[in-house]
Write a structure and sequence with these properties.
Number of strands: 16
Number of domains: 2
Radius of gyration: 22 Å
Largest sheet: 6 strands, antiparallel
CATH class of the largest domain: Alpha Beta
Distance between the termini: 30 Å
CATH topology of the largest domain: Chitinase A, domain 3
CATH architecture of the largest domain: Roll
Helix content: under 10%
Structural class: mainly beta
């Protein structure tokens, strides 16, 4: 797929304000086949780089037919959340945000290779030869190594102690030399000021997880999982069984912008079938920064 260009001989026009559905007017001429990414409203927030997470809403239209496609401004639709440069969404949307600032509206003219490919989408009425036009609003950009701001509260010595490494987005966790709690324990380390997290909502999380038993009494626990190791924050629909039950229970009802310490017994974590680095039946300690919600 060719790299996008910023202009073409004829381009669709986009009307309407950032943060609201766009009206797209398509020329009567046929598209040239070029992949165009053209900023229309400049933003002043952080620029999106590979490994960052973008939160966007968009309006879309098929050039040939003028048909408006389902978009994330439709009633009941949620913003689209994806890791930038990771192949997590259509190339049209991914390339729309790269290098662009939060608060921008971007026009994208996407030939088949950047949209629905040579097979198209029968469900949407898009053929394998159709060019799709998008107006993409970049609502938020979350940096790959972001952590929530704010002073961290202390916790009792009977619980793991946490130091956040702001340079890389990981937590250093010190587990006390004692048996793990038998029940789920959840504490706010930083109180967020954003909206309450609801089940079914997409969250952007920075996380670090350690095993209690393997780490107890050590100065610093070894991480068996982290978003830093994954290369970017985790985007996930919470409260729907997409993560371990302990995370679902710990995060629903908290506020966006919070840092949460969760001590999770095996039955709410991985039970007898843990991932690499964790023994069967281990209690899991997770530090979770709720960076954004959509």
């Amino acid at each position: 797929m060719a790299a996008p260009v910023r202009t073409d001989a004829e381009l669709p026009e986009v009307f309407g304000a950032f943060g609201s559905p766009a009206t797209i007017s398509v020329p009567r001429s046929a598209p040239s086949g070029k992949f165009v990414v053209a900023p229309r409203t400049p933003g002043h927030g952080p620029a999106a780089r590979a490994g960052d997470t973008a939160v966007v809403r968009y309006t879309a239209k098929v050039w040939r037919t003028g048909r408006t496609l389902p978009g994330s401004y439709d009633k009941g639709a949620a913003p689209q959340v994806f890791a930038v440069g990771r192949g997590a969404t259509l190339p049209a949307l991914d390339r729309a945000v790269r290098g662009q600032h939060a608060g921008s509206r971007v026009l994208v003219v996407a030939p088949p290779a950047a949209a629905y490919g040579s097979t198209g989408s029968a469900r949407l009425g898009v053929t394998g030869e159709d060019t799709v036009v998008y107006a993409v609003d970049i609502l938020k950009v979350v940096a790959a190594r972001a952590v929530v701001p704010g002073e961290q509260a202390s916790v009792p010595g009977t619980l793991p102690q946490v130091h956040m490494n702001k340079g890389d987005g990981t937590a250093t966790v010190t587990v006390p030399d004692r048996a793990a709690p038998r029940k789920l324990v959840v504490r706010n380390l930083v109180d967020g000021r954003g909206p309450l997290v609801k089940a079914g909502q997409t969250l952007v999380l920075q996380y670090s997880s350690v095993a209690w038993d393997a780490s107890r009494g050590k100065d610093a626990a070894g991480l068996f999982q982290s978003s830093r190791a994954d290369g970017c924050p985790l985007s996930v629909v919470i409260g729907r069984g997409n993560v371990i039950a302990g995370w679902d229970r710990a995060l629903v009802g908290r506020r966006v912008g919070s840092r949460v310490l969760a001590v999770i017994p095996a039955k709410l974590a991985y039970g007898p079938h843990p991932p690499k680095g964790l023994a069967p039946g281990d209690t899991v300690v997770s530090v979770l920064d709720i960076l954004a919600g959509a």
